[in-house]
Amino acid sequence: MKYCVTLILLIVLAIPAFSQQLITVKGTVKNAEGKALPKASVILYYKGSKDSLKTLTADNGDFSFNAVKPTSIGIQVSYVGYSAFMNAYDFSGTSGIQQATGIVLIPGNNTLENVTLESSKIQIKEDTVSYVVDSTMYRKNDNVEEVLKKLPGVQVDKDGTVTAQGKQVTKVKVNGKEFFGGDVTTATRELNADMVDKIQIIDDYGDQSAFTGIKDGDPSKTLNIQLKKDRNKGYFGNLTAGAGTEDRYVTSLSVNKFNNNQQISILGNLNNTNASLFNFGSIGGSMGNMISSMARGMGIGQGGGGVASALGNLGASDGIGTTKSIGLNYRDEWGKKVSVYGSYSFSEKGTSTLKDITQQNSFQNLTNINTRKQDDYTVADNHRFSFNLEYKIDSFNYLKVNPSVTYRKSATRFVSTSNITDAKQNLLNEGNIFEIADSKSPNFNGNILFNHRFHKKGRTLSVNVNAGRSSTEGTDDIENDNTYYFNGNIFDSSYIQQVNQDNNNHSYGIRTSYVEPLSKKRSLEFNYAYNRQYTGNDKKTYAIDPQNGGKTYVDTLSNIYDNVYTTNRFGVNFRTTEKKYNYTIGLAVQPATISSNTLTGIKTNYTQHLVNYYPVIRFAYNFSRSRSFNLNYNGSTSQPSFSQLQPVADVSNPQYITIGNPDLKPEFTNTFSMRYNNFDFISGNVFFGNVLFSFTKDKIVTNTTPIGFSSQETRYLNSDGFFTASGFYNISRPKQNRKYVFNLGGNLTYNNNVSYLKGEKNIGRNWVFAQRLAVDIKIKKWLETSAGVNYALNTTKYSISSSNLQNLNTNAWSLSHSSRIFFPADIIFSYDLDKTINSGYAGNVNANPLIINSTLEKQLFKKKNASIKLQAYDLLNENTSISRSVTAQSITDTRTNRLGRYLMLSFVLRLNKFSGQQPAMSMPGGGNMQMMRPPGM
Length: 937
Prior knowledge:
Layout: H1 2-19, E1 23-28, E2 30-31, E3 41-46, E4 52-56, E5 62-68, E6 72-78, E7 85-90, E8 97-100, E9 104-105, E10 122-125, E11 128-132, H2 144-148, E12 154-156, E13 162-164, E14 167-174, E15 177-178, H3 184-190, E16 196-204, H4 207-212, E17 220-227, E18 233-244, E19 249-259, E20 262-271, H5 285-297, E21 307-308, E22 320-334, E23 338-362, E24 367-392, E25 397-422, E26 427-453, E27 460-486, E28 489-517, E29 522-544, E30 551-553, E31 559-577, E32 581-598, E33 604-624, E34 627-638, H6 642-645, E35 649-650, E36 656-659, E37 667-679, E38 686-697, E39 699-707, E40 711-719, E41 722-735, E42 740-757, E43 760-780, E44 783-798, E45 809-823, E46 827-839, E47 850-860, E48 866-873, E49 880-886, E50 890-897, E51 902-914
Parallel strand pairs: 1-8, 2-9, 14-17, 36-40, 39-42
Antiparallel strand pairs: 1-5, 3-4, 3-6, 6-7, 10-11, 11-16, 12-13, 13-14, 14-15, 16-17, 18-19, 18-51, 19-20, 20-22, 21-49, 22-23, 23-24, 23-50, 24-25, 25-26, 26-27, 27-28, 28-29, 29-30, 29-31, 31-32, 32-33, 33-34, 34-37, 35-36, 37-38, 38-41, 39-40, 41-42, 42-43, 43-44, 44-45, 45-46, 46-47, 47-48, ...
């Protein structure tokens, strides 16, 4: 009886296995001309499994697999002289005979012996996402930027700004070393796509963290461009010259010589088409704070929650500029132990910017609306020099020295006209500002990193020393005329003042890290960091007599002031590293002292002693080479800016007076983030998703009080309650061997802004929602086309006086379409269309532009290394920028001019020659075909 029961159980358990109906998969392998390819190698894969079936095609190109599970599969086909084919098929729930259709091989330069199947085109491991680049991702003469546009999770704005997984990429490296000081746009537009083997997006915690393995703080996004081995020796370059309507012109030259570890690049550019070779960033040091203070004085709202009109319009250059640029990049090996690399960049840029601005300022029972027109012309000279020396002393010791110098000289001419009304459109004020500002700002920084490995495996010591010095000398001449209207009375006010500002700042610090292994997989890290930041300012304000130009020193608006911020941080971290996962748990304590001294007027001295605690929690799980999960928590501090500390009034605009607070504490921000990335090998589907939440203790916020008829005074204080939460996702799904690639992505952000109105706490609840759907289509060899739709919503509600404000919500739709068409005789026609539909903005700001650009190109010579281009920009002359900035008390809508319609005729010459370069077969339209990658690549 016992055996009968056992037999019955075995039969019952076996029924599901036998009930699964196996299927037969058949197909035919042909070339593009429809000719059958016999003896082609065919491999069938199961999704999520290493199991596979193999066979060869018959003389008529047919193949067949019997006893196949009815599920998702992948098929790879290889044949001598043809590029490998891969595609995914979903046969779930089917029965009988199923056909694997659409198997067409394209001629390539590979042979059967060198066809290698890579585990994935996208490799995901903890902090790095790697994309394998093949010739299906670009055309001949494309640059790296064109490749980036095709990578899932990566977006490139029209000005070249790169965003990866929802965060802006701030630095670039080539073969692991900085290229032109890490300038992203320079590298992505100057390097040719056919040189690239792999592109990596890295969460960069810095050189010291890379050595110790302990990662804390907020990482930056770094782009690493890995070149092909056969493109590391040779030269390449471009020469462009063009002239157009509206007196537009462009000339550029790039020369690059690569000899394995030695690289020399020279770039030059002269244009008035808003093209920039280098990005020098914002003004640093105290002058940046001074100009920010001036911006506040002019009523320009600042704070979190700003969003442009539509995702597709982000990053385009505002204003109209003329640029002169030149740069040199150098890299070499000085012997077997010393590696050096560095760059020098210079740019002179003059930019004319026109703005229409409407700013709504909210109080408990009062709202005023400031409508302004601004005309700003700024000429800025920027110099940047950076150098890196890496010395591998021996197998145990490493030294890196990194000095850098920047210098900025600028001259600004600014005019603003404004009127202020109440909520019922009653005129309160009319004003004019005329301003001339000149400044120069040198900046010196240095960093020394020393790493030492002990003989005991895993035991290390790392020391990082940094120091910097910057100064700013600025003169600002301001004339302000105002007419006030109150109860039928009119009052005039006019004054001229000169502000001379001399800032001197220096800082230095040291961070040490010692790692002691506890076992093969576990270790303890002890770290200590000391930092000292000094900010000194000498501000002198003079009243100017309009009759004779005489100057009178104004003591109440002048100040000699210094601030010292000193921290000592002690930390310990416990790290465990397993094959699939690793985690770090730690704690740091940071005593800090902030001292402020006012040396003019009523002399004051403030000293504060603070203690902050930094938990460190980090967990990373690598499911496979294509799927990972990451969890991270960290804390960081932010010191008050000089303008926020300076206890004197800034009355450069009497409608917006600001006064600093020397009692301010540094902000402390807690940040929690979670990220999940997945690439499916069989289907080619890609998913990137992350969530971030941060809240700030002692957030520096404004306390604004209305004064007079239409003016307000802003002071600063610390407050709790500020936090932000955001989420980002991107889904990429290729179909029919990447003939169609669908991308769905978006983000949601909530900002809980905090401010005070006459001492009463005001919460600004700001939601920003953005969604994007796009598709890339390659159904023909001669056609590349894409289309997309973006939607952005910005909604705001205040705890005080939301009912008094108008246009609390904005909506923006952006429709985009672009194509490249490759005609016979090496003629290429391309165009892009962008239509933006905005609603909810102020009447003087709102616009719905339709931007149409097109290019007709004729490639010349046998190698197609030259071309003549006729380009048309903004055919309807509607190019403009619309944006909204939200703070806890104000909403600011801005429309800014951009470069309008013109035609450009240009000649482009491309030269390149690489030693050991393999010949590539030409595609129609000038592309190269190489080995196809696995499905969805």
